[in-house]
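Notebook p. 47: complex prediction with zinc ion.
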Amino acid sequence: MHFRKFKANNIFTGTNFLDSEMVLVTDNEGIIHDIIATKDAGGNIEVFDGILTPGFINAHCHLELSHLKNVVPEGTGLVQFVQQVMTKRGASEEEKLNAMKNAEQELYESGAVAVGDICNTADSISIKQKSNIYWHNFVEVSGFVDTAAGKRLDDAKIVLDKFQKANSKKQKSTLSPHAPYSVSKTLFEKLNNETIQQLITIHNQECLAEEELYKNKTGGFLELYKNFGIDIGDFHPTGKSSLQSFLPYFTNNQSIISVHNTFIKKK
Ligand SMILES: [Zn+2]
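Predicted complex, structure tokens below:
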């Protein structure tokens, strides 16, 4: 077997930094065989300036929204942001594909080897099939009107099915709830049954309004529901944080990547 040997200012092992006296040994395929001292490594060592590190994981991405870069104004708060994204997400197929292609390239060139990607549509499939990155597709499910839960789940399953049919060994796809403020009780219950022992994700405690909604049914989200004509008569506040309210729905050994957590408290 042919080996390659690398050294740099440091080697990051994933848990600690080794100094420039250590050499990383791989086979031709890039499989790591060993890390050994320079004095034991012999000749033909390839030397680099900088740090050798495992590839990066981007745990939260929305590849299909790449065309919205610089379109939505910053600093308006979540409620305004969500409304902007919902009303401005349209674009031509060509614009969307070009933006996704550039973003995929940027991810790869900046060292990402695996990405957890939120999918509302099947738009990103063709980009991912040609990608060298490992993709976990979180097909997002939302619907705050409880009586619509079945329909919303069915719609998401159509998207999931497209990803699963296109999946290569470099992709995996699961359903995931969007956020506590956009998923109803029945929809959470259904998602629990659809994601047994799977990896899922959720946008959690991203703003204070989310906390106000679950504690007292007050705050900025009431305005958002009104603007979109969403009837929240079925929603009853729990008096707890959103995390404390939704987490008990998941009883089937799911692994959950909770993202944002900006307003999470220790307890
Ligand atoms: Zn997100």
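Notes: The chain has a mean pLDDT of 94. The chain has two domains: 3-52, 56-260.
Next step: compare against the earlier run before touching the bench.
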